Fold each of these.
Amino acid sequence: MSQCTLAAAAKINLYLRILGLRGDGYHEVAMVLQSVNLRDTLHLTTQSRKDMSITCDHPQVPTDGTNLALKAAHLLAEAFPKQATGVHIHIEKQIPVAAGLAGGSSNGAAVLVGLNHLWGLGLTVPELQGFAAQLGSDMPFCVQGGTALGTGRGDILEPLPPVTGGAVVLAKFVNLSISTPWAYRTYSETFRHTFAEASAQESDHFVQVLASHSLAEIAAHLHNDFEKVVLPAHPEIAQLKQGFLDQGALGSLLSGSGPTVFALYSDATLAQPAVEQLRIDYPEVDFWVTEFCPWGVAMIQ
Ligand code: C5P
């Protein structure tokens, strides 16, 4: 029996444009993905029985075949039947579930990295990302994490210089979740007329802003097309975003298709009192004060 423990980081989008609808039903996007230091912990233990099993300390996480961590284990086992063993996966959840923070994808990415190690497969990062792309559009990013430009359906990645410093606050209404397919579909139906003019080059300017390493500049240029459909449908999220700006945030944005909102502060000593006030104003919201993270998956043991 061998085992390993991995940390899997959540992700936010600092920039997200939806450029068009593709023939395969997915949307063409241009996005900047960024890992943040809110992590799940995964324990992987090989077992003599050939089967795969999973447990999680969070009741809302499915432990059936729909779990991306379990799907990742099955995918690698099918590709490498000689090296594969049975595996038990236990997930300690910190990343909120169905929140627009790629929690499930990061868990799947961690299993790919962990089994590559336990089974001695010797797969490279691009090879692991190839497997990840079969399971979800943002899972390839989660394998390497850090800061990256994502194009195609979000799975074609170009690493960008790391964003450092500052504090990142995440906030999520406890009882609210948003379906990503709903958000894409609604955006397409409402803004399809803009697709003809949309171009991946629109992200070039944001990438230049990132290179300035000025958090204030980055915060001033945050953009997420999903806000155009999610904020009108959920005015409470728009209010929360305004609440961050009223409490001195450099910038605030919906994360992915939501419902999580994030806010950037120049440092944690400014973020903490803002969050204390917002916790009073929004008792139905969970808050996390964290920071940018230069990796997606880290082997702890
Ligand atoms: O790839 P993933 O399974 O994470 O995507 C979930 C759903 O989000 C897809 O089934 C699709 O409806 C939508 N999606 C999309 N375009 C993308 C990524 C996701 O339409 N680029």
Amino acid sequence: MQEKFYITTPIYYPSNKFTLGNCYTTVICDAVARFNRKQGKDVFYLTGTDEHGQKISQSAAKVGKTEMEYLNDIVDDAKKLWNLLGISYDKFIRTTDEYHVSAVQKIFRELYDKGYIYKGHYKGLYCTPCEAFWTESQLIDGKCPDCGREVAPQEEEAYFFKLSAFTDKLLKLYKDNPEFLQPQTRVNEMVNNFLKPGLEDLCVTRTSVKWGVPVDFDPKHTIYVWIDALSNYITALGYKSIDESLFKKFWPADVHIIGKEIVRFHAIIWPALLMALDIPLPKRVFGHGWMLFGGDKLSKSKTVGSVECIDPRVLVPRYSADAVRYILLREIPFGSDGNYTTEIFFNRFNSDLSNNYGNLVSRTFSMLKKYFASVVPEFKDDNLEASKILKDVVKNETEKVFEYMKNFDVSKSLMSIFNIFSQANKYIEMTEPWALAKDESKKQTLANVMRNLLETIRIGASLLQPFLPECATKTLRALNVGENKTYENITEFYGLKAGDVVQPLGILFPRLDIEAEFEALKNL
Ligand code: MSP
């Protein structure tokens, strides 16, 4: 039976300010989803938007729109951005979708009926103009962190989820299942900071928030944030709808990939909710680090000496979706934070994409045209030491990619793939095809060298395809390799057909004149 693979991004807060950082989780998940598809799995990749809360009403009012008008515009823009970046999601959920709202109400009622939700009083520090509760630690200089005004203690009737009842069960989960949350440092954080001191019950409704899912049996209460948002991972599959077939097929999720600041919600609250509902837990939760801009997570587009442009809608049309995906996937060591600057982006573009990959493909294709009229040559008795080294590198690095991808390590996987291209470039220097071409008696050696290069490009491009789909697919098409071919037997050096004509391929990544690019960005 075909293996299933269910992967999710967090659902995004709708915002007009799209930065590279916002795209980080989604691009990683896309690479992982595509990689698993190429392994022949039946993949379901979910993303979407988290559309409730007081802030939405306030933002909509500011621009004179209703909540839904405001949200629809942003969701359209978000979908355009995902298309621009080649995000291959299978479903886009909006928490305002009717099926989600109705399922969340049923989930809430079930938790209430089972005794996991009870009515009590929420005490907090309230900011009247913002209509928001804050905790002591969220205040800035004792004032509202949003508007800077005074806050006052206030109490309101609210429902609570008995999170405290799950402390021991969650400690057991972490003990029995060390794979559940990754990287390991995040487990220590959860266990030492939250579980060992004991969990407190969680307030799950507000009467002061109107834009949200009402409790159906007590509608002055609005279901607050986490039950609504986290449930998307199951309601998107039809949980508690008339058709639960996708839920039966794909749940439990293979992985929720999320940013480190929301690990607690996914690694404590979410498993507790699922336990209360008697639903199996996701297999893994991965909390990645942040992409930092001058040390800041949420940097606005700013000028620091040179131009720092972090708007993907400017970068993609100018440098390609692949280049933007590359910098997101490659530059941040997976699981840790990493820094972004435009200069790093330009340098990686030139050194890795243009010089290493692009150059390898264009040199090989033009030599093939010159020496073999672009026809894939036949192999025979290849006993060059350089060929053996090349094949070993291809095999080892490919195996590493498969290992790394088991842990979603996209950055290391790309390093391995680019090691393959570097070795192929070295192979050209070692074998000097231009010298072989001058000697009629070396015709077969030249054929072997060219065939090895083509096979290496085929393997490298197949491995690269989930990460940089555009340029890799173009390369595979030029080699007449089916672009949907899976990874079965990938390292066999006989994937191409002798006699096939390789199609011409333009320059994949024209080298950037870095100074001129900085100038151009300044004037955009
Ligand atoms: N709505 C919640 C998630 C609910 S999931 C049930 C939320 N949304 S968010 O829009 O604020 O963040 C969405 C994702 O984007 C998070 O995984 C977050 O870590 C990620 N990123 C936003 N800026 C980022 C960087 N600068 N770097 C890396 N990822 C960051 O949280």
